[in-house]
Amino acid sequence: MQLKVPEREYMYPGHVACPGCGAAIAMRLFMKVMGEKTIIVLPACCWSIIAGAYPQSTLQVPIIHSAFETGGAVASGVRAALDIKGDTETTVVTWAGDGGTFDIGFQALSGAVERNEDFIYVCYDNEAYMNTGIQRSSSTPYGAWTTTTPGQEWKKMRKKNIVEALVAHRIPYAATANIAFPEDMIRKVQKAKEIKGARFLHIFASCPTGWRIPSEISVKIARMAVQTNIFPLYEVEGGVKYTINYTPKEYPVREYFKLQGRFQHLTDNDLAQIQEMVNEDWELLLRKAGELS
Amino acid sequence: MKKVLEGSQAVAEAVRLAKVSVISAYPITPQTHIVEFLSEYCSDGRLGARFLRVESEHSALAALIGAASSGVRTFTATSSQGLALMHELLHWTSGARLPVVMVEVNRALAPGWNIWTDQTDSLAQRDTGWIQLYCENSQETLDTTLQAFRLAEMVNLPVMVVLDAFYLSHTYEPVDVPEQELVDCFLPPYDPKFQVDTKDPRAFGSLVLPNAYMEMRHNIAMAMEEVLSIFPEIEEDFAGIFGRRYGSVEPIACDDAEIILVTSGTVTSTSRQVIQGLRAKGEKVGLLKVKLFRPFPSEMFRRILRPAKKVAVIDRNFSFGASGIFAQELRAALCNLPGHPPVFGYIAGIGGRDVTTDILENIYWQTKKNEVPEKESIWMGLQEVDHATESS
Ligand SMILES: Cc1ncc(C[n+]2csc(CCOP(=O)(O)OP(=O)(O)O)c2C)c(N)n1
Ligand code: SF4
């Protein structure tokens, strides 16, 4: 099968991500669409390191590294400066991890999208604070081990639904994407690039190191997250119009869980409970999209 | 043109005249009037800037970090809790060498909620790499804000212009608002030394290994050092155009003084009057006003204070477990001079308590009476202390 993925690369070889890093794949695909008229604001996360140490950089566009919690605000300032200078061509992008988005950076993000700042906010989601060594975030899924949810203390709260939180701000465009669905992602990035105002992309990006998986199944596991409905692909326009981009066939979540070290402690009972939660969430989404009444 | 202006408006006028491009701020008493005036200027077109109405002080400074990195002139204003919330980004701004200018209205920190003047908020940020300039009146605040942009852009470091809550921010005074053409002569359009540019892509603020970080910090230290000579030059230029000059420090009647009072902010104005009175009584007293606090002009202090017999520092701030901060810094500046005068540290006017002429005179007489300070810090006008004296 021939994928319709642009050939031009905007990453130099020599980034310093772990092998199989979903976040590195996500950026590579994202930049193919964005092109050179892009400024990346990069709050603290794995990508602060992946991008390379001074004086090197793996990205072929300017990067403003920024404090962990400032993604939404720094981008607002860059946009304001470009506007004042009359630069309407350049797209401002914040590229942040789930911690920088769901948790510490949420206030600045909420503030920026409420003001409908003209920028794209990308959250690459590896479901924990990976840069500091796999600690729980509010994106860590129910059932997961992390270094701060060890042993029987595995996380017993659901993952925060960040897209819904953003949709509640009635932003022009919010979408999920996944590194295992490059064409879907590319289409969404393209769409986001063309829209004005605050746009949010939530990209599922597996992390072999943190998830305790061999690097060669990084893309496979990301695909399974969609196939099992753990991470549905959908988009929401104007805070109301839901479109589901992929409807999976019956696929039990246990297949996804059993491949990952971070879920090894879960019992059959736990898995059954998680299956129910996933079904429930999917149903809710179908209702929002008007596919179930 | 002379106008009667509120201190806050004097600041806003300076920002307008400086033709700032991006302003970002979050309201906090007693800074609010500044941002209200600026919002108006931006909305009625008197100032062609983007005003970002962000959701916190933290984001206010973060947005300016973004804007300044993109090569435009930027401004914010804050106070107290707001400044404290910015702490991480204060370091970020100087580390990134961004010439952001901020007006900081000195206000006490909670708890107890207290909106009145106190310098602990800005002095607690003394190690963040920001240049700090303390002002005595509205005219000086306006002039200093204009100078701050030029200074910041010359050395690529952020500048904090500091003024007292209410005594300055909310007081109406006659202020000479300079003509735009003259300001344009003094302050040319911002020409950034670096900025993000998609045609010349670079990473700003990335990971820096131990082989380079130290040199970067040393560069900041050298830029700070430069301020000591550049700021007087800027003042010289300013005086040439506008006829006003303040000095990094201002010695008043210090030449033959045996006791020198050291002050900053509005306490200086009251002290001017007090030393006049004391001089009239034949007392050999001088006054030294501190304007530039970071970088600390140690050499100047040594030169001016050395001949005195005693130094009395009035601190409207306190570093718990240590002493008043100006006194601390002066002791450090003098300690290697053999036979330097003893430094008496007085704490006064904390949390907006009035620093009256009585208190200042009292400080003078106490200093005169004692050979050496009885304590590292003497708190003036403490109510408990008064009760204790009454009952003894
Ligand atoms: C104020 C602050 N607190 C803590 C940190 C340390 N820190 C850096 S990155 C990070 C976690 C990042 O997690 P996430 O956003 O999920 O990105 P990831 O590392 O997983 O890519 C933390 C806690 C910091 N840089 N700043
Ligand atoms: S820890 Fe995970 S997210 Fe971070 S670089 Fe490695 S694989 Fe990528």
Structure description:
The complex is a heterodimer of chains A (293) and B (392). Helix content of chain A is 37%, strand content 15%. By secondary structure, chain A is α/β, with parallel strands linked by helices. In chain A, a hairpin with a 3-residue loop joins strand 7 and strand 8. The termini of chain A are far apart. In chain A, 52% of the residues are buried. Chain B has 392 residues and is an alpha/beta fold. Chain B has 14 helices and 16 strands. In chain B, the strands form 3 sheets. A 7-stranded mixed beta sheet of chain B has the order 3-2-4-5-7-6-13, with helices on both faces. Strand 2 (63-66) of chain A pairs parallel with strand 9 of chain B, so a sheet runs across the interface. Thiamine diphosphate (TPP) binds at residues 23, 44-46, 68-69, 96-100, 126, 129-132, 137 of chain A. Residues 17-18, 21, 23, 46, 50, 126, 130, 207-210 of chain A line the site of iron/sulfur cluster.
Q: What's the structural blueprint in terms of helices and strands?
A:
The complex is a heterodimer of chains A (293) and B (392).
Chain A: H1 22-34, E1 38-43, H2 46-50, E2 63-66, H3 71-85, E3 91-97, H4 98-103, H5 106-114, E4 119-125, H6 162-167, E5 173-178, H7 182-194, E6 198-204, H8 208-211, H9 218-227, E7 234-237, E8 241-244, H10 253-258, H11 268-288
Parallel strand pairs in A: 1-2, 1-3, 3-4, 4-6, 5-6
Antiparallel strand pairs in A: 5-7, 7-8
Chain B: E1 2-6, H1 7-17, E2 22-24, H2 32-43, E3 50-52, H3 57-69, E4 74-78, H4 80-85, H5 87-95, E5 101-106, H6 120-123, E6 131-134, H7 138-155, E7 159-164, E8 172-176, H8 180-186, E9 203-204, H9 210-242, E10 249-252, E11 259-263, H10 267-280, E12 285-290, E13 292-294, H11 298-305, E14 310-315, H12 325-334, E15 343-347, H13 357-369, E16 378-379, H14 383-391
Parallel strand pairs in B: 2-3, 2-4, 4-5, 5-7, 6-7, 11-12, 11-14, 14-15, 15-16
Antiparallel strand pairs in B: 1-8, 6-13, 10-12
The complex binds thiamine diphosphate and iron/sulfur cluster (SF4).
